[in-house]
Amino acid sequence: MSANPEPQPQQNHLLAALSPDVQSRLFPHLELVPLPLRALLYESKRPMRHVYFPTDSIVSLQYVMENGASTAISVVGNEGLLGITLFLGGESTPSRSLVQSAGYAYRLPRLRVKEEFNRHGELLLLMLRYTQSLITQVSQTAVCNRHHSIDQQLCRWLLLSLDRLSHNHLTMTQEFISNMLGVRREGVTQAAFKLQQLGAISYSRGLINVLDRPKLESLSCECYAVVKKETDLLLHYMPQRQVIKDADTIPTATL
């Protein structure tokens, strides 16, 4: 049996959207790194040295309370990047980044990112658009956690995860899911059981298989659709290789 092919940078949507000229400057400095399940990419208030572009992994951005409790505020996969703080002027973040689905990512040193960002070209446009879509996801997650049931939150989270994978299964325990959603494990158990009874998923020994995606979408709240629409609008369907002409209005990252 042949080994799985090595992930390519173009598997990340942001890197794929760059012109050959920008790719030729950045790709030689990309480093492919494995992201094992539950690995920490960033810790709260620790210096950040790289930006990560996932190819086939999913990373959860979590906020951790003083008592150790945590809640996922967004998920990042092949549609985006981790480390927006570095080009927004900061060097650390109050949240942490935890791998929720194992795979790979390409990472780029922060100085290379800022150097390209300060050219006021394609990478800057992509990163600002992605930041806007990420803000939408974080905002909608806060609304969802406050106003919608655990069943709906689980559906939203599963759908967002599936959008960032090439298959229909996820490996994670109920305890892990409860930490992601910031709810009691018993609530996750009940919600997963309901989805199984309705034929939307199967769940056994930490493996979730999505059997009926349309059913899952119908059971989710409107929060998933809001996030997906904004992400598609800003990233998937935007004109590629768009050039920013008015450089005077564009911020410059601090090196």
Main structural class: alpha+beta
Mean pLDDT: 85
* Residues in helix, %: 40-55%
Low-pLDDT stretches are 238-250
Question: DSSP strand (E) fraction?
Answer: 15-25%
Count of separate structural domains: 2
Strand order of the largest sheet: 2-6-4-5
Using the CA coordinates, give the radius of gyration: 18 Å
CATH superfamily of the largest domain: Jelly Rolls
Could you give a short description of this structure?
By secondary structure, this protein is an alpha+beta fold. The protein is built from nine helices and ten strands.
State the main characteristics.
Arc Repressor Mutant, subunit A, three-stranded antiparallel β-sheet, 9 helices, four-stranded antiparallel β-sheet, single chain, 255 residues, 2 domains, alpha+beta, Jelly Rolls
Give structural notes.
A hairpin with a 5-residue loop joins β4 and β5. The strands form three sheets. The chain has a four-stranded antiparallel β-sheet. A three-stranded antiparallel β-sheet has the order 1-7-3. It has a three-stranded antiparallel β-sheet with strand order 8-10-9. By secondary structure, it is of the alpha+beta class. It is globular. The protein contains nine helices and ten strands. It has two domains: 10-147, Jelly Rolls, CATH 2.60.120.10; 149-220, Arc Repressor Mutant, subunit A. It has helices at 13-17, 20-26, 110-117, 122-147, 150-162, 174-181, 185-197, 213-219, 222-236; strands spanning 31-35, 40-42, 50-54, 58-64, 70-76, 96-101, 103-109, 169-171, 201-204, 207-210. Mean pLDDT is 85; it is low at 238-250. The relative contact order is 0.16. The longest helix has 26 residues, at 122-147. 40% of the residues lie in helices and 20% in strands.
